[in-house]
Specification:
102 residues, mainly alpha, flat
Length: 102
């Protein structure tokens, strides 16, 4: 199936490029609304670092999949992302437990 439909690549590229552009634009707009003017440069830089790391993930997962298999690579990436999210949430919400006596 996938080898006979390569012309769809061009259509998919248009939609994926548009989606990526809208995600970047809306993310930068959110940064603009979220922070003070003196912090905007630092938060914009952080946004770009995370956004480009996310755009690079398919290359990383594909490279790892060549060694360990695609299922293992995808599950590893999902597990790493979930663990990072839990770490960040626990670190950033630890003060709430002491503030509210929980």
């Amino acid at each position: 199936f996938g080898t006979d439909t390569w012309p769809l690549l061009f259509i998919a590229a248009v939609f994926m490029g548009a989606a990526s552009g809208m995600a970047m634009t809306s993310g930068l707009r959110f940064v603009d609304l979220l922070c003070r003017a003196e912090d905007r440069g630092a938060l914009t830089g952080a946004f770009y670092a995370v956004a480009y790391a996310g755009m690079m993930m398919p290359v990383v997962v594909t490279s790892i999949a060549a060694v360990v298999g695609s299922t293992t690579a995808v599950l590893g990436a999902v597990a790493l992302t979930a663990a990072s999210l839990v770490y960040v949430l626990r670190r950033n919400t630890a003060h709430l437990a002491t503030a509210y006596g929980a």
